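Duplicate of #3305? Posting structure anyway:
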C-alpha cells in the first residue's frame, strides 16, 4: 500500500561539533536537484556570529532555542537532518516541537536515549570496541578544559579520510573551537513527544569518529528508526553527497514524505501537525 503523502516545507540541516553551516555546502545542490529546499543553521558558540557568541556559554537549551527560531522560517513541518553530535539537540527539538518536524534524519548521528550522554556510551563500550573514543584522544584542550579544537591532521585522519582531498583540507581548516558545554549534552525525551516523530538513521560504515558499533548500539537503545547504510566515513555529505541525497530522499519518499511547493518557506511559523507515528524511545542502561 502506498503511504499517505506528507508534504514537508523543506529541510533544516544541523551541523555537528567544531563545524558550521558550511559543512552542508556540497550537499545543498544535490537536495535542490531533488526538489528539496534546505536551510542551514550556525549553532550558537561556533564562531560564525562573534557578536552573538561573545561571552556565551552554550547549552542544550540555547541550541534548542536557536533551532526553534530556524524552524520559524518554514510554514509547515520540516525534515530535520542532524550530523554527528547535532543528533542530541535535534532529538530535544523533537521533544519540544514534535508537531513541527515531519521526520528526523540522523547522519552518523548521536541518537541517544533520554538521560544518556555520548561519553557514557563510549565508556560503556570501550572494553569491546577498539578506538571507541574516536576523535577524543586527538583533541587539544583550551581554557582549562572548557573548550577543544581538532588539529587539522586529526580531522583529515578521523573525520575526512575518504573525502575529496582538496575539499577535505578546506573543511579541516574551517573547524572552530567547540565549547565542552555544547558537546557534553544529555536529553530528556518521552515516547509521547519525541517518540511520535518518524526517524531515519543513516549509518556510515567506515566511520572513524562515531564508530559503526556505537552507531548500532544507539539504534538498539532508541529503537524504531528506519536504518540505511552508506559505505563511507564520518562525513557522507562531503564524501558521497549524491549518494547520501538519493538515500535520504528515497527513504523519505518511501514513507510518504515529499517536498511541498518551493513557495512553502516563509518568515512566519504555522502550527500544522506532522502525521502521527508510533515509535518508542530507549532507556539508558
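Output from current build:
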Amino acid at each position: 500500500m502506498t503511504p499517505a503523502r506528507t508534504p514537508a516545507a523543506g529541510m533544516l540541516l544541523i551541523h555537528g561539533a567544531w563545524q558550521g553551516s558550511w559543512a552542508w555546502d556540497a550537499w545543498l545542490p544535490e537536495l535542490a536537484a531533488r526538489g528539496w529546499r534546505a536551510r542551514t543553521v550556525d549553532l550558537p558558540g561556533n564562531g560564525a556570529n562573534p557578536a552573538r557568541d561573545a561571552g556565551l556559554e552554550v547549552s542544550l537549551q540555547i541550541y534548542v532555542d536557536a533551532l526553534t527560531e530556524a524552524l520559524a522560517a518554514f510554514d509547515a513541518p520540516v525534515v530535520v537532518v542532524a550530523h554527528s553530535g547535532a543528533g542530541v539537540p535535534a532529538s530535544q527539538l523533537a521533544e519540544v516541537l514534535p508537531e513541527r518536524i515531519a521526520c528526523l534524519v540522523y547522519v552518523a548521528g548521536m541518537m541517544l536515549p533520554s538521560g544518556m550522554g555520548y561519553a557514557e556510551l563510549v565508556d560503556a563500550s570501550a572494553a569491546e570496541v577498539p578506538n571507541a573514543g574516536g576523535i577524543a584522544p586527538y583533541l587539544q584542550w583550551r581554557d582549562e578544559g572548557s573548550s577543544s579544537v581538532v588539529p587539522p591532521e586529526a580531522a583529515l585522519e578521523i573525520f575526512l579520510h575518504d573525502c575529496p582531498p582538496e575539499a577535505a583540507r578546506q573543511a579541516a581548516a574551517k573547524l572552530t573551537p567547540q565549547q565542552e558545554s555544547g558537546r557534553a549534552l544529555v536529553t530528556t525525551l518521552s515516547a509521547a513527544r519525541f517518540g511520535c516523530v518518524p526517524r531515519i538513521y543513516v549509518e556510515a560504515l567506515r566511520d572513524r569518529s562515531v564508530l559503526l558499533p556505537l552507531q548500532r548500539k544507539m539504534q538498539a537503545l532508541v529503537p524504531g528508526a528506519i536504518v540505511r547504510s552508506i559505505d563511507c566515513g564520518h562525513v557522507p555529505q562531503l564524501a558521497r553527497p549524491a549518494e547520501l541525497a538519493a538515500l535520504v530522499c528515497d527513504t523519505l519518499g518511501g514513507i510518504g514524505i515529499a517536498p511541498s511547493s518551493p513557495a512553502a518557506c516563509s518568515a512566519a511559523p504555522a502550527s500544522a501537525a506532522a502525521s502521527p507515528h508510533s515509535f518508542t524511545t530507549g532507556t539508558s542502561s
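Confirmed duplicate; merging threads. The chain has one domain: 6-133+182-264. The domain at 6-133+182-264 is CATH 3.40.50.1820 (Rossmann fold).
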